[in-house]
């Protein structure tokens, strides 16, 4: 579909000469700043990222370890009223995700009521019987969510994916902002941009709020799989900015169902763990027995209520692609109202009628593996060759249950610096939502990914994607 | 029947260990056909033991011991009263729906040969009980059972290619095959009074039959378990119901010696 007819968030449908009314100042800034000056600033930002070692993958791109993700100097901007509306939708969605997890590992009311086919949960590997019956401290499951959104118009947002396990990318949000303040200070004079630098404090507050009861001064740590992990920079960055210890599994021991951290001064009891290790590797006694990354006994301590794990093990069932298509029903079931943020229309190829429709409309659709990520195992019908389409047709017929299909949306664009000057490029958005024992907080910002290739809709960094800063304005004009 | 169990596991290490953490599934729970009169899990060194219930409803004991540890002995002793229920279970803790037990695991993924075997032996009847009994008998007839040995990680598919298998392997084959027949099935670990010298817990299986509930099958005997069994833990496969999941910090090799006695007390019929 390309960018033809797509909504540009700054220029609207009118192009550079007729920007959206609220964005005339920003549009002017883009027009007034020479392209080579923008280029220079962008290179300076990327040089800084390289020096910092921010070379990690955003969405499970395993080959991104030694690359930095390109940075684009033109910010993406949300007006206050747009943001307000979006936030309400995000809070509703994340509250529903938490209620769903509480239910699915507890009473399973949603299955009894016939809202979701039971086999879709019970036979799904992301549903972890090992943690069934555990209620995490304060009943919070998805403490840190990254909800992936796309936009098609001024007030039209769609949820593409819920990330309720260990969503990464927040360090991009923070580093991109820091670079923008340094390189484009004039923008922060002209606009009242909501700060994002309080994120580490918000995260720490969230962690402390879910500490097991009765722990007056809870000890929080960040658990990383180690420096070889592609998001290690983010792990150390977050630990550092929160002022808590960054630990590896070998630094933690469990004794008598209590977790301790080994320090030079002896053992220190640990109350809250922000773990950036997948469920499979958390505890070799309960999950993968050959895992060397895990902490033996951790799940026992968790089950005993002696430690909080962020996010809760077993959350994968909430952001599974097969469950995604039921999210509108899930939101309705737990919130009692319609989802404020709609899903992208999704055909479940496991259903014969849906499969027939998908096979008949392959050139128009995006087809995805239910368990795929990083933009792999995906067909983008409008840009695919007939050969690719036939390959997918065969795969769909062979294993329909492994696929879902969605329409190709006219993703919004944002002006982006290219070799030929400024041009619209498609973007998506990952805002971060924190849930503590007291409340749900939406961080006023997020990670904007941009498809740098002209017309491309694939924003994954492994497929030529970059990032932008995302401004949330405190006033109502830019 | 009154059954006494004494189950000693001695782990010896070629070098002293700094720490040991074990999760023990060694404690039976009360059901309508099984009353635990007394039960004790003990350890011969300074260790912390904590009781809990896992996601499958199994009673688990966490064992934490600090080194240096050259050897550790875990002793389980207890008495259980059992009644014959013709394999039909009542009063078991069931925190998970039966449909969960249709799920395949790496150890229970069926091979084409095992699936064909299941289809073959169950052909000609649609009665779910009859199908499962036939499967149970066919496995019993096909494999010569050998004494149980500590877990060797064999999968159902690998075991099916062999001739003589331990109870763990035939139980896992049953579970895998039953699931190919769309019957929820699970692996059971426990104790069996069979008059032989044993060096590992016995394994059998349970399958879900609509209208009847969970029904036990023992492909080692080709029958449904009667009152000579003490049911301890269930899981999706032998790993999930394993009596011990352990982790140690320290170098060297580990040797496990098991001394297991399952005896009938009294002589009332």
UniProtKB/TrEMBL annotation, chain A:
It comes from the Bacteria. It comes from Sphingomonas elodea. This is Circularly permuted ATP-grasp type 2 domain-containing protein. Residues 75-451 form the Circularly permuted ATP-grasp type domain. Pfam families: CP_ATPgrasp_2. InterPro entries: ATP-dep_Glu-Cys_Ligase-2, CP_ATPgrasp_2, UCP005522. SUPFAM superfamilies: Glutathione synthetase ATP-binding domain-like.
Automatic annotation (TrEMBL), chain B:
It holds the Pfam family Transglut_core. InterPro entries: Bac_transglu_N (IPR013589), Papain-like_cys_pep_sf (IPR038765), Transglutaminase-like (IPR002931). It comes from the Bacteria. Residues 160-221 form the Transglutaminase-like domain. This is Transglutaminase-like domain-containing protein.
């Amino acid at each position: 579909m390309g960018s033809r007819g797509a909504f540009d968030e700054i220029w609207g449908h009118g192009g550079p000469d007729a920007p959206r009314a609220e964005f005339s100042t920003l549009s002017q800034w883009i027009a007034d700043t020479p392209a080579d000056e923008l280029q220079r600033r962008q290179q300076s930002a990327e040089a800084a990222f390289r020096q910092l070692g921010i070379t990690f993958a955003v969405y499970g791109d395993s080959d991104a370890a030694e690359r930095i993700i390109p940075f684009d100097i033109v910010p993406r901007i949300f007006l206050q009223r747009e943001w307000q509306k979006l936030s309400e939708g995000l809070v509703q969605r994340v509250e529903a995700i938490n209620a769903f997890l509480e239910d699915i590992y507890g009473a399973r009311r949603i299955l009894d009521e016939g809202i979701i086919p039971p086999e879709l949960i019970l036979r799904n590997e992301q549903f972890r019987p090992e943690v069934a019956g555990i209620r995490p401290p304060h009943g919070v499951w998805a403490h840190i969510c990254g909800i992936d959104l796309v936009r098609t118009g001024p007030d039209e947002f769609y949820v593409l994916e819920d990330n309720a396990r260990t969503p990464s990318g927040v360090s991009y949000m923070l580093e991109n902002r820091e670079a923008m303040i340094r390189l484009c200070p004039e923008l922060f004079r002209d606009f009242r941009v909501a700060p994002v630098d309080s994120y580490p404090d918000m995260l720490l507050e969230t962690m402390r709020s879910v500490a097991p009861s009765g722990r007056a001064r809870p000890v929080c740590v960040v658990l990383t799989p180690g420096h070889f992990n592609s998001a290690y920079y983010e792990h150390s960055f977050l630990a550092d900015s929160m002022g808590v210890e960054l630990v590896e599994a070998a630094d933690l021991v469990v004794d008598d169902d209590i977790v301790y951290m080994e320090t030079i001064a002896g053992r220190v009891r640990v109350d809250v763990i922000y773990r950036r290790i997948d469920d499979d590797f958390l505890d070799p006694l309960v999950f993968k027995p050959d895992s060397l990354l895990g902490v033996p006994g951790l799940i026992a301590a968790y089950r005993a209520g002696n430690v909080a794990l962020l996010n809760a093990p077993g959350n994968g069932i909430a952001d599974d692609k097969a469950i995604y298509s039921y999210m509108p029903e899930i939101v309705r079931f737990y919130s009692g109202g319609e989802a404020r943020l709609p899903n992208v229309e999704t055909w479940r190829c496991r259903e014969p009628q849906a499969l027939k429709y998908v096979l008949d409309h392959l050139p128009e659709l995006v087809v995805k593996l239910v368990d795929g990520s990083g933009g792999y195992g995906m067909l983008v019908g409008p840009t695919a060759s007939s050969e690719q389409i036939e390959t997918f047709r065969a795969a769909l017929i062979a294993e329909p249950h492994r696929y879902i299909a969605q329409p190709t949306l006219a993703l919004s664009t944002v002006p982006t610096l290219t070799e030929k000057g400024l041009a619209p490029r498609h973007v998506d958005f990952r805002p971060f939502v924190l849930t503590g024992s007291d409340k749900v907080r939406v961080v006023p910002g997020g990670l904007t990914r941009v498809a740098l290739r002209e017309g491309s809709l694939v924003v994954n960094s492994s497929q030529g994607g970059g990032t932008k800063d995302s401004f949330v304005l405190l006033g109502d004009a830019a | 029947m009154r059954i006494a169990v004494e189950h000693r596991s001695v782990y010896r290490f070629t070098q002293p260990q700094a720490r040991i953490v074990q999760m023990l599934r060694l404690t039976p729970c009360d059901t309508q056909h099984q009353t635990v009169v007394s039960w004790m899990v003990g350890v011969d060194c300074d260790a912390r033991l904590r009781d809990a219930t896992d996601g499958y409803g199994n009673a688990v004991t966490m064992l934490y011991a600090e080194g240096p540890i050259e050897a550790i002995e875990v002793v389980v002793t207890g008495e259980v009263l059992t009644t014959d229920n013709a394999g039909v279970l009542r009063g078991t803790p069931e925190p998970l729906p039966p449909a969960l037990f249709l799920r395949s695991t790496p150890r229970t993924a069926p091979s084409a040969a095992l699936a064909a075997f299941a289809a073959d032996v169950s052909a000609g009847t649609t009665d779910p009980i009859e199908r499962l009994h036939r499967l149970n008998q066919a496995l019993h007839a096909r494999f010569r059972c050998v004494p149980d040995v500590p877990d060797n990680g064999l999968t159902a598919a690998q075991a099916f290619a062999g001739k003589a298998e331990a109870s763990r392997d035939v139980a896992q084959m049953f579970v895998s095959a039953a699931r190919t027949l769309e019957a929820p099935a699970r692996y059971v670990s426990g104790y069996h009074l069979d008059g032989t010298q044993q060096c590992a817990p016995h394994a059998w299986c349970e399958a879900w039959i609509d209208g009847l509930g969970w029904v036990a099958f023992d492909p080692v005997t080709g029958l449904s378990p009667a009152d000579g069994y003490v049911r301890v833990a269930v899981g999706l496969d032998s790993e999930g119901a394993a009596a011990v999941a352990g982790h140690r910090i320290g170098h060297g090799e580990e040797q496990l010696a098991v001394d297991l006695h399952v005896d009938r007390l009294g002589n009332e019929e």
